[in-house]
Amino acid sequence: MFFSKDKKSHLDEELYERCYYRVFTAVNLIARDPDLAEDAVQEGFYKAFCNISQLREQTKFCAWVMSIAINDSDDAQVRKIEINGNEGHLIKTKDGTLILRWAMRGLGIALIGKIEKEELIKVARSVA
């Protein structure tokens, strides 16, 4: 079945809205950190929409996204870290990508890269 871009976008939004809360709640129970759970949920939806052709049963979309997001949250190694007096999280994904997230003056900041941990922290401290 083929849809126009506008129709597909509307369907994607509808699926997202229908499943988001259930997926987020499940992932947050595992991650025990709303920010990390949010990252895993966003990544889960992104992967699901990119690979929608692999979904065997359309009625199982929410469960499928949930399993992708839970696997993403399980795959990440997380460490709390301090950046110039602000608490943050250093996340290492399965593919070796480092994600450094923290809040500064009320803004959420994330640095993402495939570089050494010390270099990423050095960049963060120069920004903060």
From TrEMBL:
The DUF4367 domain, residue ranges: 72-127
Which parts of the sequence belong to the RNA polymerase sigma-70 region domain? 15-71
User: What superkingdom does the record give?
Assistant: Bacteria
Q: Name one process (GO BP) from the record.
A: DNA-templated transcription initiation
Q: Name one GO molecular function term.
A: DNA-binding transcription factor activity
UniProt-listed InterPro entries: DUF4367 (IPR025377), RNA_pol_sigma70_r2 (IPR007627), RNA_pol_sigma_r2 (IPR013325)
Query: Could you tell me what this protein is called?
Result: Sigma-70 region 2
Organism taxonomic ancestry: Bacteria, Bacillati, Bacillota, Clostridia, Eubacteriales
